[in-house]
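User: For a benchmark we're assembling, each entry needs the component sequences followed by a predicted structure for the full assembly. Here are entry 17's components. Please fill in the structure.
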Amino acid sequence: MNGFKVLQVQQSVFADNDRRAEQLRQELKTQGVFLLNLMSSPGAGKTTLLSRTIESLNGKLKIGIMEADIDSDVDARTIEGFGAKVIQLHTGGMCHLDAEMTRQGLEALGTNDVELAILENVGNLVCPAEFDTGAVKKAMILSVPEGDDKPLKYPLIFSVCDVVLINKIDVLPYFDFDMERCAANIRTRNPAAKIIPVCARTGEGIDAWTDWLCNEVTAWQKP
Amino acid sequence: MHELGILSSLVHTIEKIVTEEGLTEVEKIVIEVGELSGIVPRYIEQCYPAAVYKTFMEKTALELVTVPGIVKCRDCGLVFNAAANDLRCPDCSGQNLEILEGNDMIVKELVCR
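Assistant: Structure for entry 17:
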């Protein structure tokens, strides 16, 4: 074979990202920074929910936000208006963020004065679910107009999230959306998921969400 | 675009192996793609030339091997092929499944010197 040999490797391509993500999480633990990975489809209300979250926490936690989008800075401008520290990340066409991009984002944001860092992932229910970003917890938003059968169509994202926020509950009377059926569909994929119905526009249910966030941040900051 | 990102990470992984093993040339790589990995083999093949362009792997051939997705039903314990059964246990119709095999992408071997 002209001096060629076969080298048996058996190495996972995802292992590289998983290792970087674990290392990032360790560093965040040391710094006392809680990183949340927030995912949803485009238009489910990530930016509105974040604005409402900042408003509702009202200075209780020092917040830093990373807005990841394929292009533009409209989301970062919106969030900035609510008084949180924010940076815009451009993924340059990529459909998700990995651990290395998240690390670069945190460095650009600066975490010295941040207790709760939130990564607003690219609006997509497929790829973001597959990559560990180094976040401590994962949350996702499912909005009422998307339908209660979404957990059946995109099982992976529902199976990896710690919290599922069901947003836009103010429009429930106008949609054929059954909250109990939706919860059952989520539980099929993830019996441990916490489900919180909210309306980011009116503020309904937001307290349950911010209570969860505060508890998680406190638990993470304990040595 | 998903597959292109995965391939850049693949090039990194191989680069590390090449340095560690002191290799001079990689003629071919054999990659295993699991049916439950969310990776589409056809897209991997299409993106591959772009991912290795102007890298040390520009002339390296790619061979893909598909690995079946094997799952275990958490309700009744049956082990079965997930794709062939539409992600549903053929015995009890359960959908609470544990993935045993086929959710990864693995560098299996390098033909090199």
